[in-house]
């Protein structure tokens, strides 16, 4: 499986709200870092955050605009559309993923947090 295949599988897991699969696609010591917050390090910390999201998310669509690799990293430009606790929103995102041995070792996310929180009704 190529790095792009792993990234596509991760995005598909989010679209299907398949949090177990999304968590499984991270390396045990993987990092999920929304750059305006502290990074989550390790599968257990990432699982905790995704379970919080799962509690309120009714649907998610990651609308991929651009996807490719540069210097061994996967870059994705997308618009995330979602339903969360009775609210609907969308937020443009750029993500950078490092993948090794079929697992995400680092996922950096760049987006406007205020836009995300507004869409979530917060």
TrEMBL record:
InterPro entries: NTF2-like_dom_sf, SnoaL-like. Transmembrane segments: none annotated. Residues 7-107 form the SnoaL-like domain. It comes from the Bacteria. Gene3D superfamilies: 3.10.450.50. This is SnoaL-like domain-containing protein. It comes from Cryptosporangium japonicum.
